[in-house]
């Protein structure tokens, strides 16, 4: 090869992919100093082998380059030869325990052709090599140093000096020693078995400390290019001095959970209090600093924090303590005078009253219908959502075609729902769930007509209403009043009042007449959702009860905590 100029990254040859294929593959390239680099990558930045020669190769001059690799998954297994001689190498990364076989951007193994003079990264000029390349050869085995020298035009076959004899011995051992060949074949077989096993193991990203740590500075007005004094690892000294803790993430965890730290327990119990009451003792859950709100009941906050720490951070014990308290067990009904005096319930003179989160609204409907799967743990699941929604966002080919799961996976608790940040589940978003683009500790609560339309028309809600209808026909007795009352009790945990029952009875009568005349419409309604219908039950009655139950799901007591 004969490079014309120096570039920051000039690919001589390789098949390594781009970002969406995890840069997987191998590549031979020149760095900004024209030093030769070899990188075998499973995933950047550090799941790879990466070495660089100590010396640069000249500009506008032909050089013979070759690299070999012995399959050991170690940087020491890579050798780089310049003009037939092994070069000294600097190791950047030596951590490779999975395959470097190339993949496409849907993460499926796909052979990638070797590209010369340019990388597979997106932009045309990324990795572009300017210069001449000639006589490219790729071998199916690791060549010995003697063979490499011979290819480069250096005859060491009959040399008698120490270097030549060492290369000759390596060649004979590698190519003509039966015992060595047997051991090497066995080693390669074991390596293949190891890689086949490790390749099937799923991984998640885990942070670790950088050595040496990156220097950090106070930035002048927050500008990254205007550093001031250097700062070291530490924490909020006013809460607890950061003394005796290691200056890393482990030390931070120890500092946070130290019994003398007054901050962590208070923040935690305040968030759990918010879960129950819809408002924290400190209203600004995300800010306990001087810009946050003051606690309405500071002694209560202190006591709960101490109870939490003394119970060895037992979350269940804390939740039980709050749930069984007289404060929480109060009625949420308040007089007009009390509401005028304390509209936000700062005095805790009544029980909580607020709309349930999106996940609980869905789970409540599934639980009432008997569809909710109580299995704990497992992978995320894909529930119903409008067709073609993912195809409108082209961030990744891996997430273009949305295919809902089948059978029990459709009815798992909402906490297991698959979330795509660029296209989150629309039913959850309508009910004010977070889109996961940023971390938040407090969701907004809105009340819009779209939310009512969602509860009336979302396939999962209609399907749940159908299963509730089938359940109350089987379990509620012969009387339609008893069936309606059971449906409401399954959804709200109370019986219908007489006035409510009269309204539901009249609505059921109208829907029953409608579906007795419109049998096709009844069949269409009962086909919503994947769960098989009970064909032994009368179609018109099930359809009418489905419609009424669906209306019940829009009743504020069904989705409001009181």
Question: What topology emerges from the helices and strands here?
Answer:
Layout lengths: L1 E2 L5 E6 L10 E7 L3 E9 L3 E10 L8 E5 L8 E5 L2 E2 L2 E6 L20 E2 L14 E2 L12 H7 L10 H15 L1 H21 L17 E4 L7 E5 L17 H8 L5 H16 L20 H13 L4 H9 L12 H6 L12 E2 L2 H12 L56 H5 L18 H9 L1 H17 L4 H13 L5 H20 L1 H8 L12 H14 L3 H4 E2 L1
Antiparallel strand pairs: 1-11, 2-3, 2-10, 3-4, 4-5, 5-9, 6-7, 7-8, 12-13, 14-15
Helix pairs in contact: 5-6, 5-7, 9-12, 12-13, 12-16, 13-16, 14-16, 15-16
Describe what this molecule looks like in 3D.
By secondary structure, the chain is of the alpha+beta class. The protein folds into four domains: 2-186, Sandwich (Jelly Rolls); 216-256, no CATH class; 262-341, no CATH class; 354-562, no CATH class. Helix content is 35%, strand content 12%. It has helices spanning 145-151, 162-176, 178-198, 249-256, 262-277, 298-310, 315-323, 336-341, 358-369, 426-430, 449-457, 459-475, 480-492, 498-517, 519-526, 539-552, 556-559; strands at 2-3, 9-14, 25-31, 35-43, 47-56, 65-69, 78-82, 85-86, 89-94, 115-116, 131-132, 216-219, 227-231, 354-355, 560-561. The strands form five sheets. It has a six-stranded antiparallel β-sheet with strand order 9-5-4-3-2-10, with no helix packed on it. The radius of gyration is 34 Å and the shape is elongated. The model has no long low-confidence stretch (mean pLDDT 89).
